[in-house]
Amino acid sequence: MQNWFHSHPVITYIIILCLVIYIFNSVFRVQRLPLIKEILVHLVMAAGAFVLFVFQIDKLPIIQCMSVAVIMMLMLRGRQLYDKWKGKGSSSEPPADPSNKPTR
């Protein structure tokens, strides 16, 4: 697999850039940024992806490690969706007891 990535550098860089953007959007993005800041962030990610690309060409398993991280994030998202779907069918909270009124 490393030999294939080494012989296809453009595809390797695009894969790394896509993984970096997905990880950033999944983990670090809180809200939308203004357009100029958004462009600046993506340019910095492109530069960082180039550094990771150089490490990948030097035979480090960058794509494989980032793929594992993305798979784990997708598993977490799937589990969250499953818990949300499972919680809709039955209420996980016990019904409120009207005799237990809080006292002041």
What do you see in this structure?
The chain has 104 residues and is mainly alpha-helical. The protein has one domain (2-86). It contains 4 helices and no strands. The chain has helices at residues 2-7, 9-28, 35-57, 62-89. Helix 2 (9-28) packs across helix 3 and helix 2 (9-28) packs parallel to helix 4 (62-89). The N and C termini lie far apart (68 Å). The mean pLDDT is 88.
Secondary structure blueprint with pairings:
Layout: H1 2-7, H2 9-28, H3 35-57, H4 62-89
Helix pairs in contact: 2-3, 2-4
Transmembrane segments: 6-27, 39-55, 61-78
Keywords: Membrane, Transmembrane, Transmembrane helix
Pfam family, one: YlaH
Give the topology string: H per helix, E per strand.
Answer: HHHH
Shape, principal axes of CA atoms:
elongated
Classification by helices and strands = mainly alpha
Mean pLDDT across the residues is: 88
Largest sheet: none
The percentage of residues in β strands lies in: under 5%
Gyration radius, in Å = 22 Å
Kindly state the number of beta strands: 0
Task: Outline the low-pLDDT stretches.
Answer: none
Helix content: over 70%
Number of domains: 1
Helix count equals 4
* Distance between the ends: 68 Å
Task: Provide tags for this entry.
mainly alpha; single chain; 104 residues; 74% helix; elongated
Quick gist of this model?
With 104 residues, the protein is mostly helical. The chain is built from four helices and no strands.
